[in-house]
What we know:
The chain is about 25% helix and about 25% strand. By secondary structure, it is of the alpha/beta class. The chain has a single domain (about 45-250), classed as Dihydrofolate Reductase, subunit A (3-Layer(aba) Sandwich).
Amino acid sequence: MNAIEQQTSWANLVEALANNTTPLASEWTALFNPLRAGSRDDLMVVGQLGQTLDGRIATITGQSKYINGPAGLTHLHRLRAVVDAVVVGVGTAVADDPRLNVRLVTGKNPARVVIDPKARLRPDALVWTADGTRRIVIVADNATANTPPDVEVISIASHNGKLAPADILKALCANGIRRILIEGGADTVSRFMQAGCLDRLHVIVAPIIMGSGRPGFSLPAIEHMDQAVRIKMHSYPLEDEMLFDCDLSAQRVKLM
């Protein structure tokens, strides 16, 4: 498939997913067709992590640009292009100041959502750029949002200073958002996974060994191997990187 055929095939698949119709046959059907809808309720929630061979997402100082190469970054933008909203925690928004838009592939920008319980993200953050895309901040019910006036504010009850993943997803669903990408950071993705709030997880592994740094997952310690989460998955090569598509539907809780 040449570049023009690949672009046309991708554009057709994006349109089919947006219209919730049967995706046309393409090289991406096996990977993206499972993202059409969730198996438990009206939501489809996919998490994404990019990490090294030894499971690191950043150096000990937090520097992470760029662990993944062009193919991995392109896949991330494809995920953004097929969801209603992309979600990050405030730690990622502060550290990386991401734009969270679609630049590398054909597709519409998803709504940009920041989980910010204490409303500490600056109003001039790039994620709040007024570009016609819907922007949402999720804060604790005792916090006052510190965002530009045209950013939507969702307040939900906090538990020990944290917002429960299930409550976040229910609030987004109530605001018309069904297909959701939990993009980062590692703590946020791990919390959604631990809470049984992910249908799929895409892990892109780069051929890099750091030897130290911040881990890709932050989950409670286990004592025995039978306590570990064993996952159904498929792998897909992305040039010199490897994508692991993990099916977490068996542990996904019903939210509505």
